[in-house]
């Protein structure tokens, strides 16, 4: 089969379209013929050699590596102990995360059934492949963590704030992968949703249910809103703390990407800051899949690339300003 591998860390140019053996399956696994692959930030963090992490915490990488966690496809073979999936089933999932062993940038993948769900009939393989990591991140932040593993960033177990009608939720980076699902889930729960994104995404976000849009290219959120119950910041970085001032006392800040907050400042403002490490969860994806089938969730697709052009997909990701998800299509 064909798969994307890289033999040294580097830029998108290190991604090679190689011939490799079809993987063998073990207990509790199925072999999936991959139709589409979701592109996520951990894919390019891995390709870059995990430079995003402090040097003393970086894992030792053994090359060659095949990146990828998210995929949608059709089951081709099942291990003898598998009862929930059969040959011919359409499935989607985020495989073996956190970790670097998903290996979904390939025409076939060995997938643990615990990480899989049946693909919703209402969406195609491209949309299904774009969903898992982003939608599970939003779900585990906002709805149900699904485990009791402490966050590696805080050492605390995250407790989602129940979203109820009448609450106001602000989503920064609302048009991106996690952001556009956070908008939809908050709206599904009855919140008034304020989206922060470039104005060019306004139509997209309004269609997803955003009640208001703040165009960050022209307006600072802190200048126009206050008294927010919950902020989910899908951008993070050193500027994330600017959103603390829009929260009411007792409010909650959920940074999705790396961001540091002054504990004295958050204590003074009576603000809770909490984050998670998203984890694979097939049963949660099955529950989310029912929302796709009911039309209560949709997947925004920014662009698609053939698997052989994974480098181009990573170049697109580096440009930023993504609307939804970037997806690779895998022809077998």
TrEMBL record:
A Pfam family per the record? ADH_N
Question: Secretion signal: which residues?
Answer: none
Q: Drop me one GO molecular function for this one.
A: zinc ion binding
Enoyl reductase (ER) domain mapped to chain residues: 10-328
Q: Which domain of life is it from?
A: Bacteria
Q: Where does the sequence pass through the membrane?
A: none
Database matches in SMART domains: PKS_ER
- Write the protein's name: NADPH:quinone reductase
UniProt organism field: Streptomyces venezuelae
